[in-house]
Specification:
By secondary structure, the protein is of the alpha+beta class. The protein has helices spanning 7-26, 67-80, 134-140, 144-155; strands at residues 39-40, 42-48, 54-59, 65-66, 96-103, 107-108, 120-125, 128-132, 168-172, 174-178. Helix content is 28%, strand content 26%.
């Protein structure tokens, strides 16, 4: 699958993400998923609607699940297993908005090829790894160097470890869409 997802497909995936989490929190069976979709790398982000505060973000770096399954699984994981936050409760769900990021393939890049706001970035160095989605740099107004440094921090590395010969930088783009109330483009 390449190119942008049509608006009805984006809407269906956002509805699926919310339904998967609501069903999980209620102890229901997972929603039915379409068959035959290609695998995609997907991240799902939950935020508080009012202030945009992050409540969870988890995804897959590699396309291991069909698109709908990846959205459903990561929706639940982002809300209940992000180690930075307490699990989302059923009472919180109406106050949250969901955002989906469908990732492109990763490409190894040199630091001077990184474009903050366009690229997401994965760094691997000294046995550590960190990733930031493309929208993070846009939300914070970061330049290219800021993105490199903050990706290092996310990995638990020193700010300038992106300069190391041993550092591997992988750039990617993402199609990002969310519900009304999220900070990303609406459908």
């Amino acid at each position: 699958m390449s190119g942008e997802l049509p608006a009805p497909e984006r809407s269906r995936l956002l509805t699926l993400a919310r339904a998967a989490l609501a069903g999980f929190l209620a102890g229901d069976e997972p929603p039915a998923l379409p068959e035959g979709e290609p695998p995609r790398a997907v991240f799902v982000t939950w935020r508080r609607t009012g202030d945009g505060e992050l409540r969870g973000c988890i995804g897959n770096l590699h396309p291991i699940h069909p698109l709908s399954r990846a959205v459903a699984l990561n929706s639940v994981a982002a809300a209940t297993r992000d180690p930075r936050f307490e699990p989302v409760t059923a009472a919180e769900l109406p106050e949250l908005s969901v955002e989906i990021s469908v990732l492109s393939a990763f490409e190894e890049v040199a630091p001077e090829q990184v474009e903050a706001g366009r690229h997401g970035l994965l760094i691997e160095a000294r046995g550590k790894r960190g990733l930031l989605l493309p929208q993070v740099a846009r939300e914070h107004g970061w330049n290219d160097r800021d993105l490199l440094e903050h990706t290092c921090l996310k990995a638990g590395l020193d700010l300038d470890d992106w300069r190391s010969r041993d550092a591997k930088l992988m750039a990617f783009t993402a199609e990002v869409f969310g519900e009304r109330g999220s900070r990303s483009p609406m459908i």
